[in-house]
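Here is one chain, start to finish.
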Amino acid sequence: TKTGTDKFFQSTIGYSYDTRDLHEYPAYGTLAAVSLTKFGIPSATIDFSHFNFDYRRYIPLSSDIVLIGRLFGILTAGNQQPVYEHVYFGYGERIRGHFREVFEGDNLFGASSELHFTLLQPKYLKVDFLPKEFSLWRFGVTAAAFADAGTVWYREQRAIPSTLPSGYGFGLHFLLPYSFVVRTEVAWNELGKSEFV
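Its structure:
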């Protein structure tokens, strides 16, 4: 607005279907989530909506190998949205190979696949000097190969850009106590430039 201050209500409705075995590092199952957020109820200056979707599938190929696929996006409809509600790669969502780059737009679409190879099955250690709820520690190591692609675009553009930022690579994932997962990865983008993530 001309005052520099926007005041409006927003409302979100969503649905989530989740059969994953372990939230922080699943080995099988499906996540399917959709939501619709309406900005401005009502508002003379703010009147647009975001449709979010996220689909993830975890397929065990053997006891030590898991194939993972993900499709996700945010689509915008309605009147022009303010700059502070644009969507991005480079903050919450990232494309490995372009990990430190920021892409901004009205709409977002991404796809990712990973192949996990278990190097060290999770081991559990009882730490007796800690309180009971903190005494069980887990350690494991997984090797991973991955490929990412995604893009953002403004609604004035006639179509999704034909060239998608993308990347691929491999790394090690360390499963640590208290559900922490540390990922160390090397990625190459579509131009062959490498980066450490």
